[in-house]
Each structure stands twice: as C-alpha cells, then as structure tokens.
Amino acid sequence: MKNIDVFIGKSNDNVKRIFIISDGTGQSAINLMRACLIQFEEHNIRFTIYPKINTTEQIDKVLKSAREHKGFVAFTLVKKELRKYMHELCHEYDIMHFDILGPPVEKLSKFLNAKPLENPNLLRRVDDKYFKRIEAIEFTINHDDGKNLKGLNEADIVILGLSRVSKTPTSFYLAQLGYKVVNIPIVPEIPLPKELFKIDQRKIVCLVMDPEVLQKVRQERMKHYRGNNNYTDLRRIFEELEFVYDLVKKNRQWHIVDTTNKSVEETAREIISSIYGREQEFF
C-alpha cells in the first residue's frame, strides 16, 4: 500500500497531518482540502495521500497511523460499505473525519430514485470527452498568439485582445474544458487578418482591461524585459483600448469581456456564456 506525502508550509514545527483516503487518485479530496485551507491563516500542513484503497484491511492500517499522528481524515470512497466502516472506525479511534462523496451521493440517489453504481473506475474512464480535451489543447497550442491561422474556421472560440489582457492563459484554460481556441493579438498599427472576417463572427470575443490595471501588469512584465516606455504609457494604453472598443462597435456580433481583477476561470465562464449561453456544459 503506497502513500504520497505533500508538505505545505514554511516550517516543520507544529505540523498538522491530513490523511487523504480514496479508492481513486484522491485528487478530488486534495482539491477540496486546499480550497478550504485557503480560508485560514498559513499553517504547516502535511498531506498523506493513500490512493486506490478498496479493502477494510487497508483502511485499518491507514487509520491506525492517523490515530497515532492525531490527524484529520478526509475520504472519497464510492462503496457504501467501506464508507460505513470508515465512519465506525473513525468514531472508535476518536479521529476527526469528513466524508466527501457519501452525503451528496446519497442525496442524489434519493433525488434520482436510483441506486449509485459504486464503481470507482468511472472517474478514471478514458472517454470521448478526454480525447476531445486533448485535441483542443493541441489545437490551442498550435494557434496561440496568432502564429497559425490555418483551420481558423475549426475554432470553437476566437479570442482577440491587446498585450497582457490574459489571452493565452484564458485560451489554455478553455482548451482544458474541451474548446478549440485561437487567440490573436490586437495591435492598432497592424491590420487584423482577413481570414478573421470569413468565419462565424458570433464566436469572436475581445478581451479588455481597466487601463490603469493594464499599465501595472505591463510594468511588471517590463521588469524582466527591455523595451520602450510607449508600451506602459497610460495615454497609449487608453488609445489602444479605444481602438478595441471601436472594433467591437463596427463588428456588432463580436462579444466583449472585461478581465480586470478576474481569475482565468471567471473570464472563461463569461466567454462561454457570451458565446454559447449559460446552459453550456462546463465539464
């Protein structure tokens, strides 16, 4: 039975142990624990991950270690009998624990009036969506920053924007969701490619950003590069943004998304909603 240790913190003093037990990879539990820990001031945390746990004997060994280290246990187990065993043993050992999958699966079972399959392999199944994401990622990498316009009509989303408005990170995030993305830089002195106006204009979105925020982002970038001051000049940035807004006015079917102080995830969701509507699937 293999386990993986991950340390988060600055010191080995006062380390709190979190044991992740899963019949899969444990990634869902890790993501949830990390999301929860963000809400607390920095602590020294050691994650110990036990993947592919599917017997009571394995659970016995892990929980004995968790009890010894006075750890917290989070688990994702799809089989009801294993979840029940976990609860009972945690109570017996007086271990703080959290069942991540159990409650929502049971509530969904009641809602759908159906029994869960209890198959841990379903999450790891290689299906059509997996291949679609791989294809989208390869397509997006090959069409980053306007370097390749072949197959432009195959794109699900075309992103336009000035330098440093988060075109590339947003494109790659969308690709991971399965969208083929082309991103093309907007430079007022350089005409946009003619091919752009021959595709479905409804899948084109322009990214913009507050001028002062954009100036700070560009200034941060220029710490590592040499270039002229025109790139970070606020008046120039205002002119560039005005150019973008004029483009959108002339092309009424284009969408516009403001990325100011937004995460890549928020920007991506807004783009998808703008082009495909709010009912579009996000996973």
UniProtKB/TrEMBL annotation:
Coiled coil: none annotated. Pfam families: Kinase-PPPase. GO terms for molecular function: ADP binding; ATP binding; phosphotransferase activity, phosphate group as acceptor; protein serine/threonine kinase activity. Its EC number is 2.7.11.32, 2.7.4.27. Keywords: Kinase, Nucleotide-binding, Serine/threonine-protein kinase, Transferase. InterPro entries: Kinase-pyrophosphorylase (IPR005177), P-loop_NTPase (IPR027417), PPDK_reg (IPR026565). It catalyses: N(tele)-phospho-L-histidyl/O-phospho-L-threonyl-[pyruvate, phosphate dikinase] + phosphate + H(+) = N(tele)-phospho-L-histidyl/L-threonyl-[pyruvate, phosphate dikinase] + diphosphate; N(tele)-phospho-L-histidyl/L-threonyl-[pyruvate, phosphate dikinase] + ADP = N(tele)-phospho-L-histidyl/O-phospho-L-threonyl-[pyruvate, phosphate dikinase] + AMP + H(+). ADP binds at residues 161-168. NCBIfam families: PRK05339.1. Belongs to the pyruvate, phosphate/water dikinase regulatory protein family. PDRP subfamily. Bifunctional serine/threonine kinase and phosphorylase involved in the regulation of the pyruvate, phosphate dikinase (PPDK) by catalyzing its phosphorylation/dephosphorylation. HAMAP family: PDRP. This is Putative pyruvate, phosphate dikinase regulatory protein. It comes from Deferribacter autotrophicus.
